[in-house]
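Quarterly update from the structural biology core.
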Amino acid sequence: MAGRGKRLWPLTEKTPKNLIPVKGKPLLEYALEEARQSGLRQVVLIVSPENKSAFHSYIRKNKKRFPWFVFQVRVQERPAGNGHALLPAADIIKNGPFMVRFCDDILLHTAPITGSLLKIFDFYQASVVLLERVSWDFVSRFGVVGTKKPKNKDKFREADGNIYEITEIIEKPARERAPSNLTVVGGYVLTPTVFRNLQKVADSLPQAADDAIPINVGLQIELITGNKVYGWEFPGKRLDCGTLENLKRTEDFLKSIRDCQV
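Predicted structure, tokenized:
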């Protein structure tokens, strides 16, 4: 939520990235609908300082449309990474697990992506990340995972697609260093230990550079310290809305379909 939307300029000159409409509704609302269908009730929007008033205004104008949600807004003062962006919500997360969704990915599937991630978390009681298999030519753009077959996989049948136990996460590796072509995309259910990992990293880097503290750093520490992390390669489609070209492609694609869950 707190990104500056530089790749969507000039659309983001006056409108925050996640309030840009796609097929008649803001990107944010695709994630909100997914959350509603998954039974979530508390929503925390992490925003940049310059977009704080825009999101407060959005909530005021649309609160009656989303009566099942309790909204809160938190500000990430510096763009030090998507892991760093979670820290302003410490008073809300406290010591419980929590869901993270990036709104610039629209995820199409026959069931809500968020709900499936929550079911996998409930079964394994460990952090779960959403995975997408990409062309080997593109692995250097993402966090890439190494995997192995998880225990008790055959006992869990509530989510289609492939479930993996993650053995390593490498941030934007060169193709020859990538352990697979499975990449982390914008959906997570995280344990409080991952949050504490991120807090410790942030405390050690008080002047962290832009994007220096991604969520994947907290997950890497989780693996190093012997905790489990799982990944779900969902069999649906991810629509990346992070650039003007992709935004137009997404708009055209959504106009061409009717029956997918978004």
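The chain has one domain: 6-255.
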